[in-house]
Amino acid sequence: MEFKIDGKSHHKARACTIKTAHSTIQTPVFMPVGTQAIVKALDANDMLELGAKIILGNTYHLYLRPGSKTVKKFGGLHGFSKFPNSFLTDSGGFQAFSLSDNSKPDENGITFKSHIDGSKHYFTPQSVLDTQYDLGSDIMMILDDLVALPNTKERIKKSIERTTKWAKEAITYHKEQQSKGIGVDQNIFAIIQGGTDKEFRKLSATQLCELDFDGFAIGGLSVGEPNEDMYETVEWTTDFMPLDKPRYLMGVGTPEDLIENIERGVDMFDCVMPTRNARNGTLFTSYGKINIKNAKYKEDEAPIDPECDCYTCKNFSKAYLNHLFRAGEISYFRLGSMHNIRYYLNLMKQAREAILADNWLEFKKEFYAKRGVTKE
């Protein structure tokens, strides 16, 4: 991986370039979520048309179905899905934790039951990397021990200790595998934990950032805590993260969340929000969200967003999308998802341009003004 900072603007906002084996990624970047090796309702060609340079695959789901060996047989995620640009795969730890009725972490890994058939499985720092070597992703997230919030200080402290232990095991194993010619074009990111406790975040960040990872993520946020707590935690945590490596905030979020956290020094984001909301009828625009199923759009000739250049906005009216949604037409899922993802990708492009021109504050002010929000 190559990484360079191209420009900085107000506070910690920065524009960077990440080069992987499969694409050049300009940050800030939003990574659409492709849980099953592609984004729901879309295919690889759609993602290329939308301009996506990197999407996120889910290790837990692909491990269970179709199985990493099957994906490997077809040339990894790139050959299997035909999406030629970069993939980031998470470790699967979050899904093992959240989708299993009784996942049980111990000092060496996580025991969980498949949400598909109830079969029992065990993830270790090494085994999730083996799965990701088969998947052939450009960026691999390591296994971490995450906990539900709120929680006791003892349990959060334990999660940090375990996460650091597993990180050391993962980086050692990865270097060993690379020396054998395995995963040589794959990069590895660690995940900082600690809830919203500043001292715990500092402890986790300090321990992990001493290790030779290619990048670092902030995990365990956007799990129900107030937005201001999330922003404050990110603001604090990025101070302890290296300047010369990518910073990734996992599972976040709304357009407003992205803008606020870019200002706090984050480079990379992912979230199911644009696609999930599209399927439920919520579409993002430069002027805030709209619900396309509302009756007021039944005869609306305008596109979803007059400022958007996506295929949907260039060709179809709100009235047509309102009709498709109400009629239960599957094509609505594709058209709505295409728009929301393009909106997110365009927002990141505009943010990058503002940083490079060093007029972040003006950009942010206009972003909120269009939404009818006055923001200092």
UniProtKB/TrEMBL annotation:
Name listed for the protein in its UniProt record: Queuine tRNA-ribosyltransferase
One GO term (biological process): tRNA queuosine(34) biosynthetic process
Gene: tgt
Cofactor binding summary note: Binds 1 zinc ion per subunit.
Family to which this protein belongs: Belongs to the queuine tRNA-ribosyltransferase family.
GO function term, MF aspect, one: tRNA-guanosine(34) queuine transglycosylase activity
Cellular component terms per the entry's GO annotation: cytosol
Record-listed Zn(2+) binding positions: C308, C310, C313, H339
Record organism: Halarcobacter ebronensis
Subunit structure: Homodimer. Within each dimer, one monomer is responsible for RNA recognition and catalysis, while the other monomer binds to the replacement base PreQ1.
NCBIfam families on file: Q_tRNA_tgt, tgt_general
